[in-house]
Amino acid sequence: MTSIFTKIVSGEIPSAKVYEDDLTLAFLDINPASRGHTLVICKPELPSLLDLPPDLLVATTRTTQLVARALMAALEPDGFNILQNNGSAAGQVVFHYHVHIIPRWSGDRVLTPWRPGAASPSDLRDIAALIAAQVGKE
Ligand code: AMP
Predict the structure, then answer these.
(1) In the predicted model, what is the mean pLDDT of residues 13-41?
(2) CA distances from 41 to 62, 73, 95 (A)
(3) Catalytic site positions
(4) With a 6 A CB cut-off, is 127 part of the ligand 1 pocket?
(5) What distance in Å separates the CA atoms of residue 25 and residue 63, rounded to the nearest whole number?
(6) Is 104 helix (H, G, I), strand (E, B) or coil?
(7) Cα(77)–Cα(84) distance, integer angstroms
(8) Best probe residue, ligand 1, of 4, 10, 42, 84 (max atoms within 8 Å of C-beta)
(9) Where on the phi/psi map is residue 91: left (φ > 0), alpha (ψ -120 to 50), or beta?
(10) pLDDT band at 126 (very low <50, low <70, confident <90, very high)
(11) In this predicted model, what pLDDT tens digit does every residue of 62-87 receive, in sequence order?
(12) What pTM does this model have?
């Protein structure tokens, strides 16, 4: 099924475009968390971070930085969050890779920080070992 973002890339659906190049597109989120909330997508329809080849990873990261700089200059927020959801459990709704740039103003409470948990040093060591053993294997 064609994603809504692919339809934006093709021009079938309109968007408030901020930046475009061969591999990436940036446009405003239609339901912004804050003023200037921008999405950066890679043009090929790939579902998540796990699916991107290196050239698209580099391209989307470069565009994210470029647009974040422009956004900071244009709207002068106090900061910004980069958010990137992978999978329904993580809140992903559009399964076409995208990065959220969410401008923040002091005290805006747009995103609530997570509640810091606790882990023992041996928990941390065990979990790190599980992950480390898988690095580069997929
Ligand atoms: P996510 O939850 O990370 O998949 O985020 C998807 C985002 O896409 C949401 O913040 C939506 O508001 C946004 N969105 C969905 N449709 C459009 C659209 N036509 N134009 C701009 N943003 C959209």
Answers:
(1) 98
(2) 11, 21, 11
(3) 98
(4) no
(5) 8
(6) strand
(7) 20
(8) 4
(9) left
(10) very high
(11) 999 999 999 999 999 999 999 999 99
(12) 0.97
